[in-house]
Amino acid sequence: MKQFVSVNDVKNVTQLVQDALDSKANPFGEKKIGQNKTLGLLFFNPSLRTRLSTQKAAKNLGMSVMSMDLNTHGWRLEFEDGAIMNSDKAEHIKEGAAVISQYCDIIGVRTFPSLTDQEKDYQETILSQFIKHASVPVISLESATRHPLQSLTDLITIKEHQKTNRPKIVLSWAPHPKALPQAVANSFSEWMIAADMDLTITHPKGYELSPDFIKNTPIEYDQKKAFEGADFIYTKNWSSFNDYGKIIQPKSNWMITAEKMAWTHEAYFMHCLPVRRNVVVADEVLDSEKSLTIKQANNRTYAAQAVLKNILK
Ligand code: CP
Question: What one-character DSSP code corresponds to residue 235?
Answer without folding.
Answer: E
